[in-house]
Amino acid sequence: MEYRPDFRLRRMRKNPILRSMVSETRLSLNDLIYPIFVKEGIDSREEVRPMPGIHQLSVDALVEEAKEVHQLGITAILLFGIPDYKDSLGTAAYKSDGVIQMAIQSLKKHIPELMLITDVCLCDYTDHGHCGVVLDNGIDNDRSLELLARIALSHVESGADMVAPSAMMDGQVGAIRNILNQSRFSEIPIMGYSAKYASSFYGPFRVAAESSPQFGDRKSYQMDIANRNQAMIEIQQDINEGADIVMVKPALANLDVIHEAKVRFSHPIAAYNVSGEYAMVKAASENGWIDGEEIALEIITSIKRSGADIIISYHAKELAGAISSS
Asked: What's the CA gap between 208 and 82, in Å, rounded?
């Protein structure tokens, strides 16, 4: 006798309207943050070769780019600065007329409703390319904290809505929360790069930000890619120090970490869909091997499904239309 199942899951898949009605994971433009690189000393824009569609922008070009992003319905951007002068202490990072400070002021003048989040680190500004102060071929954690706090304060004084410390120095969130509180900026939120792995997926970013380390690597301060329990400790520590949002980076290689963080913690979870993940999709798409937009949408959906409340992605602009109409 021929067997015919009574329970048929395909009933819920045949019709696109029904598929949408029972979809368990829904993307929104409010989930997305778009990263942008702003650079001193260029006329307008320079394409980042390993990241098709992504550019280093002058402050003027940044304003036009940000207007386009905002018109697409994306409400927040993450800013990375590239100065024309670098030294061992990254002093250009906290100048009142530094590239990020000037970018913030210009954006607030022209697009005041756009949320501005700034990356707080030293690697873009140091001549050695490390995320902290170098001492005896190592990183001086506590001296670095002083500078990271100073950078964050300069960003907020310029008008930043949120700061995002990414150096992976022990105590960075606490140091920044302390200086902001003392300076009457206690209402400014902090998004900590809490579980930031020492990943090879960052290669294209280091081209874009001109931040490759000039010696050694960052494994003494960024996390070992093999560790998950340590990620939970890092996240808890950032929460204890006053982080309002905690981040897992990279996203695609750490969906299990994102999920566990979502289960364990009540704080909003951000995930960074990083440059290497973006570059791989673009390279395969340009070779005709995949449908790049569909793959990017699938990746972003998987990051959301794993538990991320906020997704930082270079795909945000290209996916805005598809997400807003879904």
From this structure: 9
